[in-house]
Input
Amino acid sequence: MTNPDFNLLITLDAVLSEGSVARAARRLGLSPSAMSRALSRLRETTGDPLLVRAGRGLVPTPRAMALREQVSQLVQDAKVVLRPAEKLDIKKLDRTFTLRTRDGFIENFGPDLIARAALEAPGVRLCFVPRQDRESASLRDGSVDLETGVIGAATSPEVRTRALFRDRFVGVVRMGHALSEGPMTPARYAQGRHIRVSLRGTDKGPIDDALEALGLQRDIATVVGGFTAALAVACASDLIASVPERQTGKLRAGMHSFSLPFPAPAFTVSMLWHPRLDADPAHRWLRDMVFEICSPSCVDVTSGINLD
Output
């Protein structure tokens, strides 16, 4: 079956509302011949003459009368659908946004994000869920609105991204720990007992690679799944945690942090979202809020360590 030409609805609406082919043509900006062809196609499509001669004028058939209100409503509905989106009234927005983040992000940035959302959009709720892999399926299926993390090989090329901040690792121990005093060297750092953070429990990271280049190896005492757990263990023991400086700024309060005594690669934390939300005004507001709170131009909540 051939798909109908929906442009004919606009023509039919004009003809039925004007009650005159000539006036309908002027309303649509069509020439008499173009209007005649459109009317012929309408009659062929509907199987009804629609307008018939009565004296010197035309009158609608019973089928045309029955279609008048329905066609008018269809045309109006189509105009509403195709109309540009109205300007977002953020104060009236009632919506839940799900953000998938690594641990440390919500503890460090969550309170400011929640407070900002409550001030600007009281009807908005932020739902934070853990990011335990780099797959983009949750963005694609819509279960997650926004992610934060490091872009890697597993990140889908279809997603949109925007860098939030640069970060690098620092060492962290409890106050009074032996490493809280005296000069730090690669050998002294490596000789301590360490906490490795790994989602899979076994993989090595950039710190291990940097030490290996110096002929050194960390003594791994335990492996945990996140930075929050690593800091909690380090705070209550003599173990050393190595965590991202900016993302764990508030979590490291009351502990001794120090620059790593060897070159370790910095990395960029970005936000990621699916392209279908790119033009959504509410989602754009969310992205702008996250960027403004997390970007380096905002007040730095870290300990102020100089890693240069």
Remarks:
- The longest helix spans residues 62-82.
- Residues 297-308 have pLDDT under 50 and may be disordered.
- The chain has ten helices and twelve strands.
